[in-house]
């Protein structure tokens, strides 16, 4: 009988020892007796609460990451819009600069043409002045007949009209 009492006492100690919750105890380990001990001591419930807390924390982190991702996507879109706006402004500036370069080229060409035209008019005007002076000198010296003088005067007037029409 002593053996039965002793066995019952040891079994009681084991059962009571198993009632104290051990958060480090893994309910999956220890086989049947470990499972019974885990149920009796509340290890399963403690482990379940720990896992639920980890799950809740992971869900909270996931939500925070999603919010940060949405914020970053919004930032990226805003930056992309700013870059697109700057590119449009740059394209507009380039187009205006090209138009200005074309205008400058036209003005240079026009200036060059005007300078050439002016130089030609000056050359022809000097030639006319020289011809007039020669005609005047020949008239004063009496070197021309009336008919030659009229022909020469008509020629000088035509030369003047040609210059005037340029």
Structure, explained:
It is a single chain. Helices cover about 90% and strands about 0% of the residues. It is an all-alpha fold and about 170 residues long.
State the shape: rod-shaped
- Helical segment count: 4
Determine the mean pLDDT: 81
- What is the β-strand count? 0
Helix fraction by DSSP (H/I, runs of at least 4) = over 70%
* Rg (CA only): 57 Å
Q: From N to C, what is the helix and strand string?
A: HHHH
Structural class: mainly alpha
- For the termini, the CA-CA separation is 147 Å
User: How can the largest sheet be summarized?
Assistant: none
Strand percentage: under 5%
Number of structurally distinct domains: 1
Low-confidence stretches: 16-23
In short:
This protein is mostly helical and 166 residues long. The chain contains four helices and no strands.
What characteristics describe this protein?
single chain, 166 residues, mainly alpha
């Amino acid at each position: 009988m002593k053996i039965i009492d002793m066995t019952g006492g040891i079994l009681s100690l084991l059962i009571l020892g198993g009632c104290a919750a051990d958060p480090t105890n893994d309910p999956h380990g220890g086989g049947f007796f470990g499972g019974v001990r885990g149920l009796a001591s509340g290890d399963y419930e403690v482990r379940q609460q720990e896992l639920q807390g980890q799950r809740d924390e992971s869900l909270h982190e996931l939500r925070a990451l999603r919010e940060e991702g949405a914020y970053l996507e919004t930032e990226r879109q805003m930056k992309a819009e700013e870059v697109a706006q700057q590119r449009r402004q740059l394209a507009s500036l380039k187009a205006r600069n090209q138009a200005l370069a074309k205008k400058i080229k036209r003005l240079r060409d026009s200036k060059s043409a005007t300078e050439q035209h002016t130089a030609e008019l000056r050359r022809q005007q000097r030639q006319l002045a020289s011809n007039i002076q020669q005609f005047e000198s020949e008239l004063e010296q009496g070197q021309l007949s009336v008919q030659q003088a009229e022909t020469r005067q008509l020629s000088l007037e035509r030369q003047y009209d040609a210059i005037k029409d340029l």
